[in-house]
Amino acid sequence: MRRFPPLIPVLLALLALGDLGTELRLLADHFTWASLLAAMQQHPLAVAVLLLTPSLIRHYR
Q1: Which terminus of the chain has fewer CB atoms gathered within 10 Å of its CB, N or C?
Q2: What is the mean pLDDT of the chain?
């Protein structure tokens, strides 16, 4: 039987990526460390969710 990833952490990660969508496109076009730090400062909750997603998936299994 195949196990699927838990829905809540995956949904949170998708919402965080949606929140960071514009910044990720800008970073993909012109990456600078300053723009990465600015994106992290402007969206701290989305960054925290993305960093904690592996832990959340392990917790919800």
Answers
A1: N
A2: 92
Q: Structural domain tally of the chain?
A: 1
Would you say residue 2 lies in a domain? no
CB atoms within 10 A of CB 44: 9
- Whether residue 31 lies inside any domain: the answer is yes
Domain that includes residue 17, residue range: 7-60
Q: Give pLDDT, residue 1.
A: 53
Q: What is the pLDDT of residues 14-28, one digit of tens each?
A: 999 999 999 999 999
Q: CA angle, 3 as apex, 20 and 24 as ends, to 5°?
A: 10
Q: What does each C-alpha distance from 13 to 9, 29, 30, 38, 49 come to in angstroms?
A: 6, 22, 24, 20, 6
Q: Is residue 1 part of a domain?
A: no
Residue type, 38: A
